[in-house]
Structures are given as C-alpha cells and as structure tokens.
Amino acid sequence: MAGFKKLITLQLLSWLLFSLIGTFFVARGFDQAVSEAQVSTQTMVTRYIENKTLADVSPEHIELALNNGKVFSTFIVRDYEGKTVLQIATPNTLPFGVSLIESIFNSIRPQFAVNKAKDIKIEFVINASSQADLLQQALLLMFLISALVAFIPVVYMQAIYKRLNRRVSMTVADAVEVYITQNQQQSLVSSDFSTDDLEELGSDLAPSFNRLAQFLKTKQEDIQNAALSIKQEAYKDVVTGLGNRNMFVEYYEQQIESSPKKSFGALAMVRCSELQIINQTRGYQKGDDYIKSVSEIIRHVSGTYSQSQVFRVNSSDFAVVLPNVPSKEAEQFGDTLQARFTQFQQNQELSSVANTGIVTYESGKPLGELLSVVDNALSMAQSKQANAWHLQRESDLVNNVSAGFGNQNWRRVIREVIDSKRVKLMMQNIMPVGKNVKAYAEIQSRFTTEDGQMLPTASFLAMAEKLDMAVEIDKLIVETSIEIIKTRNFNEKFFGINVTASSAHSDQFVIWLERRLLKEVNLSSKLIFEVSEFGLQQNIKASRRFIDMVHRVGARITVERFGVGLTSFKFFRDLKPDFIKMDASYTRGLEEDKNNQYFMRLMVDLAHRIGVSVFAEGVESQEEKHIVETLCLDGVQGYYIEKPKEI
C-alpha cells in the first residue's frame, strides 16, 4: 500500500512537471503567433500609407473600418508635427491565464508605421483575442491530455494491485490452511506447498512459515510455562507455601486413584488442635506462626520418607501422603510426629499442638472413601491425649466398626470428663482503659484424660456440640467456676464464663442456670456470660430469652467475636448486652488498617450511645494497644496484656 501511494505521488509530480513544460511551449507558440501577427499588420499598414499624404487618408474611412475592433484594439493617427488626428481604442480583456502568460512574455506590444513623406505616423496595438482563444483551448487540451496520460496508469495499477493483493491473500490463506491441516510445527513446511497456486509463492513463503512455526512454538512454551506458574500459585497455600486442597485432590487422582501402576502407602491427616484458641487469644499473626511451625515439623518428619508429599487442605488440616509405606512404618511416623509436637508444645506453653489420623491405601481407592476413614482415625486420635495419633487398621474396616468408632470414643471420653469433673480452669484478665471502666477476668476451660493428658480444647467442645453434650459441659464449667470463686474468696473480682450457643438456646440449661444463680445472690452480680455473636444469631428469640434471664438474676452478658457475623445494629440494640468483644481479626495489624480503625471507631461510638462497653481481644503488641486506646475502647485483652494462668 505504501508503494502504491508513492506511485500516485510520482504520477502527480510528473503531471505537474509535464503541465509546466507544455504550458511553456504553448505560451511560446502564442508569443510567436502574436509576434507574426504584429509584423504582418505592421507591414500591411506601412504599405497602405507608403505613398499617401495625410489628405489622402480619410479619417472617416479609417474610423469606419476600425469600428468593429477585430483587427486593432488601439489605433492612433498623428500628423507630421505629432498631433493626434485620430484615436480609436477598443478595450479587449484577455482571460486570466492568457493575461498572465502575456504579461510574462510581453507578447502584445505597441507597433508603429510611418510613410516616406513622414507626414503620417500611425501607432497601433493589434487585437489578439483570436490567438488568446486558441491559447486557452490549447492549454485546456494539454492539461486534459497530460492528466489522462498521468492518471490512467494509476487507475490501472490500482486495479492490478487489488487483484494481486486478493490473489496473494488467497494464496497465503491456502498456505496457512495447509500449515494448520498438516500440523507441521515440529518440522519444515516447504514440502507442504504442493498445489499449483502455492508453487509460485512456496519458495518465498516457506522460510517465513518456518520462522512463524518457531515463533509459535516459543510462544506456546511461554504460555504453557505461564499457565503452569499461575496454576502453581493458585494451588499454593499462602502461609506455608505448601500445595492446597486442589493440588492434593489432583495429586491423589492422578498418582494414586487413576494410576495404571499398582501402588500402596499411607495417608495421614494432621489437625492443628489449637489454631482457633490461638487466633482468639493471641491473635491471627500468632496463629499463622503456629501453622508455619507445625508445617515445618511435618515436612521435616515426612522428608525422611521417599517421594512423600505434604499439603495444607484447609485452615487447620494437613494431608501427608507416604507412598510405599506399610502400616508398621506409618506407626513409626506417628510416634516421631507426636514426639516432635510434644517438644514444640513444651517450648510454646501450649495445651496441645496437633493430632494425627493415619490410614493405609491402595491404588484405585476413591479419595472420598479414604477421607471418611482417615477422619474417623483423626477423631480417635483427638479423643486420646494431646498430640496423639491413631492408625485405622484393616481389621476395623472388615468388622465394620469404623463408621462410628470415632464418635463413640469421643462420647466415652466426654462422658468420663463430665462424670469425673476433669476440667481445669484458666484465667485471663481484661485490662481496663480508663479509671471508670469496669472489666473482668475471662475463665477459660481445659479438659484432661484419665492419665492427665490435655485434650484439644477446640476439638473437645466441637465434638461435645456435635454429640449433643454441650449443655452438660457448660453446666460442669459453670458449676466448677462458681465453686472455685467461692472457695478462693474472689469477692472483689468479676469473672467471664463462656457458654455455647446451643446451651444458651436450651430451655433446660436456662432453667438450671437461673436456679443455680438464684442460690448465689451475692455471686451472680460478679458473673458475665460470654456468647458468640454468630451463635446468638441462630435463634434470636431464644437468645433474647437467655439474656433477659441473665439480667434478671443480676448477671451480665458479653457478645464475643463481635463483627464476624452480619448482625444489624437493630438486632444488637434489641439484645441489650452489657459488653461486646471485637473479634481478634479487627485487632490484627490495626495500626496499618484504616478500614478496621474506622469500623471499630464506629462500633465504639454506637455502643457507648446505648451504654455498652467495648473490649478488644487478641492484642499482641504495644502498637495495637496504643491504637485501641486512641479509638476509645474500654478494655484490651491478649497475650501482650496477660497470658492465661491457672486460677
């Protein structure tokens, strides 16, 4: 297309050049014709007056002869003294182009004629209108012919260009079709140009298509690498850097379930039992550190087994695949992992670290079925002791006792805890901000096995709710707390006791708690019952009934983990709690998170308007404590303020 534009420009310049040259020669012809006319007219006038005197020349005759104005535009007769005897002027306007040429060449000039006696002198200017008309016609004809000569090739070349462009496009399209059809990305393509239409262009197109093939191959590799990188990032856990659940599922389906080779091994599921408690009491940053430490322990222990794989399948669970590991070696893996967890527990002052469920597998076994079995094994491990493991054996599967064995064992363990009252109470103070703020100490529960081993608190309470035993556990906690408060003579302190939502919504528990608190009139005003915001939302009517009862006996209510649910302020106002605890997620990185600061400031303002105090939990640093104080909260709780301690 650029070449065609150059052709048009060249033709246009040629036309202009030829037009200028043609104009010059036509103008020269006009000048020559006018000069010849002037010479001829001068000769004629000279002969006419040659032997005549002024008396012989009749002015009337001359004037009559020149009136038509076709020969002279100006005619002046003078006597021997130079006086004008006759003057005739017929103005003759030339066309613009002719006038311009005439002015350049000065073709039409005054002419003179004198007789021999010199008594007649004539000055005249010829009328060149006929020559001007011829000049104008010649110019128009010349411009027209030169334009045709210049632009007919352009039109013709344009038509040729379009036909050639179409042919080339069709030829290239055919070449691309051959290239795609025969899929020659891995070899040269010159042999593919075998049709008649492609033979002429094949030698020229083949090198370009070879380069295109190499370019596409390179781009395809880049795209594949980029897609693999994106997939790896999407399949990677952010905190630990391990593969996530999606990668675990893909690995199992490709390497185990759908593998054509016979294989066997062990699958271990490790559950971090303290994650929820650490998040709530120490903050999410400490929770992430805890998860990282557990993942490092698992990777270190499993790294001694060939081709082992570790995945983080959810927030608290890790999946460990040990290929070609029999059950005996899987037991050794469990013992080693438990020993490392126990050592970490002692260093970090935790009640437990993680429990492990183990099950053996063979190739072709569906993942869903295997996860169900390993979940039972994990439930068994959690019901034993801190950091315990359990291997689900083949004999259990044959006897069909695995389906409910984990739940049955949990039920037995929880029943033993209730009957033996094996609950250990810890206390963590809430530090008030300001002199007039009333705060309290939160009572936290820990549960032990028969041999004194600490059970994972979160798993214990979750299983108690799942097995409908939460009411009995809450009764045990409340009863134990009241007895310790009375025994230790904590008359000046206030204590917070956690109650599950299922107990708060249970008529049986509400009636029991009201009667129990009425027996302790002096003590009731010292108690604050904590219920999660999410739990209160599940049954608003029952929640309001529970809170009204608590207020009626003189105790108070705290809505904990506030801000996690979708509670409207109307709901919050109607429940009329005494305190709210902002969830630890709002405290995490509070000094840098302007959104959380704005939300907490808003909640504090609204709560204070209706007489509710606001506490922050999970405070881990001086910076977080300072921001909380500037936001006018009423109290702070967390490991930076005070660690839980035995009552």
From TrEMBL:
Residues 407-647 form the EAL domain. NCBIfam families: GGDEF. GO terms for molecular function: cyclic-guanylate-specific phosphodiesterase activity. Pfam families: EAL, GGDEF. It comes from Pseudoalteromonas xiamenensis. The keyword Transmembrane applies. CDD domains: EAL. Residues 263-394 form the GGDEF domain. Keywords: Membrane, Transmembrane, Transmembrane helix. The chain crosses the membrane at residues 138-161. It comes from the Bacteria. This is GGDEF domain-containing protein.
